[in-house]
Amino acid sequence: MRTLAFALSVILSAGTAYAGSTGPDIDKVNGSIRVDEGQLAGDLETVNGSIHLANHAKADSADTVNGSIELGDDTEIDSAETVNGAVSLGQRARIRHDLESVNGAITLERGADVGGKVSNVNGRIRTESARIGGDIETVAGDIEIGADSRIEGGILVEKPSGWSWGKQKNPRVVIGPNAVVRGRLVFRRDVDLYVSTSAKIGAVEGATAKSFSGATP
User: Is this structure's pTM higher than 0.85?
Assistant: First the structure.
């Protein structure tokens, strides 16, 4: 009984400090959100503002409408989503599920890991010795799968919808040295596809790959 009482007291005292599954929720309309180094947070939501997790911080989710999301080194979060803003993951940062942006670049530094899919409409998607558990999806963004990166799903570049004026630039897709893309590479619009001679990829649909040796095409 004493052991049980002590365990309950620890849980209750922790609950007073952290309201969510990992920490307190933070919700803003106008303003940025910052979680300091090594701190815990719950759901992070803002409309006009960026979200920043310092090194070793953890949170449940990060969602913003107009603003960037920046995850420092060794951070952990369940999911991240922004409408207008870039998303960057530091070294060994981890997102357990999906990473989504509408208009904004997405960058995964060395050792970063996303358990689900990574998607945007506009903006470059770049990985550097990182892992993605699902697909990479875009419409108009360039894709750069850096050296030693691993994509467990495939790549999908969708055809733009609606009206467009003038000739659009082809997205540039580069699969770097020793990178692996296990799933299919499906292109529903014209792209410029470059694949390293040391990379391993799935079947390609809708494009012709140009081989290159060395670090970049």
Answer: yes
- Among positive and negative, which fits the CA dihedral 23, 113, 111, 104? negative
Nearest to 71 by CA among 96, 123, 175, 129: 96
> Structure tokens of 175?
């699969």
Give per-residue pLDDT as tens, 175-186.
999 999 999 999
pLDDT in tens, 79-99: 999 999 999 999 999 999 999
Residue 47: Cβ within 10 Å count: 15
Contact at 8 Å (CB) between 107 and 86? yes
pLDDT tens column, 8-34: 332 333 333 334 457 999 999 999 999
